[in-house]
Each structure stands twice: as structure tokens, then as C-alpha cells.
Amino acid sequence: MISEENRLPLSFYEAYDTRTLAQKLLGCELVHNSPEGLTSGIIVETEAYLQDDPACHAYRKRTARTEPMYSAAGTIYVYLIYGMYQCVNIVSREDGCAEAVLIRALQPTEGIELMEMRRRFSRKNLLPGFVPKPVALRELCKGPGKLVQAMGIDRSIHNAQSLDTSSLYIRPQILGHFEIEISKRIGITQGADLLYRYTVKNNRFVSK
DNA sequence: TGTACGATGACCT
DNA sequence: GGTCATCGTACAT
């Protein structure tokens, strides 16, 4: 089967406030058409980051790192975390308003072998004697750092690009009927009680 | 110069 | 299941 591009237009990202967009993105397909091959997965877990939210990178000061967050809806924001992993966000709202949706987990669809290879060999596999082990399907994109590795997303390539023109883009909703579960965001202390996390209920590819 | 923040894998139980 | 090690970024001192 040949998969068509079927890229969502920027009007999709402009149409909703950030928390609504985070929910509308569930069931959509994140696609990376990379030189090594095409990989994709259904978005099953997102988190919203708002301007008046202490967990948001743009909560305090406008810096070089967070500059893409201030761009138009549909801009890609990739940041480095723990000095070793990266997380991918979809910028929402209008120019000058720094809000975004963090993509936290995918249900793999296309290019599963390529995703498995990327995950297996992007580990600390340069140490002598380290033998990379196969990565289970369920583990491929189960977490924001993991899905970025599996999809071959890279800050130096994708950060500040537009989903309208990048090799990374999103296809419309393809998941069958599902319920959205709302919960607290994972792994943060600032704004920890805000219910800005959205998951596909009972989906086994959700991170937790 | 120091410190808070935060995702993952290795290792252990 | 839990504990530990890893380090770029932002910001206070």
C-alpha cells in the first residue's frame, strides 16, 4: 500500500486554542518522510503548555531557545532535555503567543523496522562490549524522548520549521472511535496539578 | 559560580 | 517495582 502525504493544512493548527488542539491531535498521524525512509505513528498522548503556565518554557522570559514557540501555529519546536534527549512540540495560536502541544506517545503505523533500528542503535551503544537489544513495538514511541528517536526527529533539522513544508508533518485523524482521558502532566513539579494531559483511553501505547 | 529542572536506560529487587 | 546516573538551559547569586 502506498501512503499518500495528505498533510494537514496550517488552518487546522490555527483553528483551536491550545488545550483543544492537544485533544484534536489525538488520533492524527505524525509522519516523518526522512532520507532513510518514511515512519509514522498515531498520536495517542499529548500535553498542553500555556503562556500563563509555570511549566511552559515561555512562562518567564523570551530566549533564543524558546523563540520558535512565539512563531505561528503549526511551527515545530524541538528542545533538548537532560542534555541527551529531545522532545517535539506543535506550536499553537497566533504569532507572538507562545503556547504549544507536547507530543508524548505514538502508536507506530509505518516504517516500524526503521523505527526499531533507530531506537536500538541510538542508545549508549558506543561503549565496548555493549550489545544493543531489540526494542519491543510497545516501547518504540512510548514517551516523548523515545518517539523523537524512533521518528528520526532532530532539533538541528526540524526546530522552527513549519509543518506545512517540513519533512515532518501531520495527517488527519485516522483512529476509530475513542475516548479522551484527561490527567495531570508527567514528570513536572511546576504547575503539576493542572489537568493538561490528554490520552487515548485504554490505548497500550500511552506512556503511563 | 551555583542550582533547579527534567526523560531515559541500566541495574537491581 | 525502585534507585541511580546522565547534562544543556535558564536564572539567581
Automatic annotation (TrEMBL):
Signal peptide: none annotated. Pfam families: Pur_DNA_glyco (PF02245). InterPro entries: Formyl_transferase-like_C_sf, MPG, MPG_sf. Keywords: DNA damage, DNA repair, Hydrolase. The keyword DNA repair applies. It is an enzyme of class 3 (hydrolase). Transmembrane segments: none annotated. Its EC number is 3.2.2.-. One of its GO terms (biological process) is base-excision repair. GO terms for molecular function: alkylbase DNA N-glycosylase activity; DNA binding. It comes from the Bacteria. SUPFAM superfamilies: FMT C-terminal domain-like (SSF50486). Belongs to the DNA glycosylase MPG family. PANTHER family: DNA-3-METHYLADENINE GLYCOSYLASE. This is Putative 3-methyladenine DNA glycosylase. The lineage of its organism: Bacteria, Pseudomonadati, Bacteroidota, Cytophagia, Cytophagales.
